[in-house]
Every structure is written in structure tokens, then in C-alpha cells.
Amino acid sequence: MVVLLLTQVSSSNGVPLSSLSPLPSSNPPLPFKPYPRFLSNNPKRPPNLTIARADSRPNDPTTPSPPLEDNETVCVGEERVPLEGVIRFDKPDLTSQLSKWGRVAVLAGGDVLVLLLFSAVGRFSHGFPVLDVETLRTADPFIAGWFLGAYFLGGYGEDGRGMNGFSKALIASSKSWGVGIPLGLVIRAVTSGRIPPTNFVLVTMGSTAVVLIGWRALLFAIFSSDKSQKNDVYRRGSPFELFELLTSLVRRW
């Protein structure tokens, strides 16, 4: 319709249609804008691709990580006190073995000395020389019986070494004496070929009870290693601890 009107107007005015200027466009062309500077200058650069499994989810930095599991709290004692810190387990190393056998050596040496003292006092009371080989021969049966009884009845075990308290140490020493000294009398009777008189048996039992149980009770009373005293900050040391300290120093040296 517009073309027909233009044709009619141009024919009436005698103006050719080609000389007419085009109508101005309502939408002018947009000005040319260059590409942003932050875009890459290399359009052929391949995009960065990441291969992921189908069942995996992308790592979202905003996604909170799962909370860490709390360590299990161990409660000890009747009041269920929570235990915190590092637990140390004592392993049977060389130092502990030396300490153990050092205690046994001290007790065994003291037992032999008091039995030799018993034999020397007995020979002296009968007018025999003390510094003689017969003193050792008199004490031999009782030393053998004592070691046998102490070995089987815990005279050198934890109770006998005083590790579990003063009372248990005395009980272990008493049991060892109650079996070891009668066994020594039997050994003496067998080796000598005659049964000892009753007075000798009674004196022997009483004297050895005093010297054997007495010296051990004195040792454990002075140098007690009772477990109830291990929690004290300040406590008296013992010769066993001194021996353990010396062995550890020699080992480090």
C-alpha cells in the first residue's frame, strides 16, 4: 500500500522513485563496541575441563565440612573421673629387670647374713670358734631350706619384695619361714644322721623367726614401697630406687 502511494505521488509530481531518499529508520544502528579487555587475546585456547565421576559432587567451598568425631573419654575410679592426657605403659625393659633382680639380691644377701649370724651365735654360746668353716656348715641346711620355702611361697615375689604393702611382705616372709626352717631341720637331720633334740628345734625356730622376719620387717618399715605412698609428692626414697637410678645412669653412659 505504501509502495503504491509512493508510486502515485512520484508519477504525479514527475519525480522518479529512485531519487527519493530512504525514510529514516526508527532504530538507528548500534555503535561498534570493542571486546572487553579482560577477555583472553587467544580465542583458540581450549577451555579447561575437569573430569569427575558421576557419583561425585563438586567441591563447594561454601559447603561445611563434617564435624570431627570427639575422642572417647575414659572414666576411672568409683567417682567416674574422666581420664585425660597420655597413658604410659611400663614395659619390661632392661632397667626394670635389673631393678627387680637387684631387690631379690638385696633380700637374698640379707637372709644369708642373718642365718650366718644365727649359726655364729649358736656356736659361740656352746664355746666353739665363730670364724670357722663349721659355722658355714651349720648354717647350710637352714639356708637351703629357707631358699626352697621362699621360692615356692613367694618370699622373693612381689609380696615378698614389699611391692604390695608392708603387711603382705610380712605374711610372705612368715610363710617362707614356717616352711623353710622346718625343711632345714629335716635336711640337717638327714645329712648328720641323727634327729636333733627338741630344745634345739625350739631354739632354732624362735631364733630364726626373730632374725629372718625381724630384719625384713625393719627393712620394709624404713624403706617402704607401699602403693599408697606412690601418690605423695615428697616421700622418702629406698635403696632399691637408688640401685635403679645407678643402673639407668650406667646404661646411658
From TrEMBL:
Residues that span the membrane, as ranges: 101-121, 141-157, 169-190, 202-223
Entry keyword set: Membrane, Transmembrane, Transmembrane helix
InterPro entries linked to this entry: DUF3054
Taxonomy, superkingdom: Eukaryota
Composition skew (Pro residues), residue ranges: 25-34
Segments of this protein annotated with the region Disordered: 12-72
Pfam family, one: DUF3054
Record field: compositional bias (Low complexity): 12-24
Protein name in the entry: Transmembrane protein
Naturally occurring in which organism (per UniProt): Stephania japonica
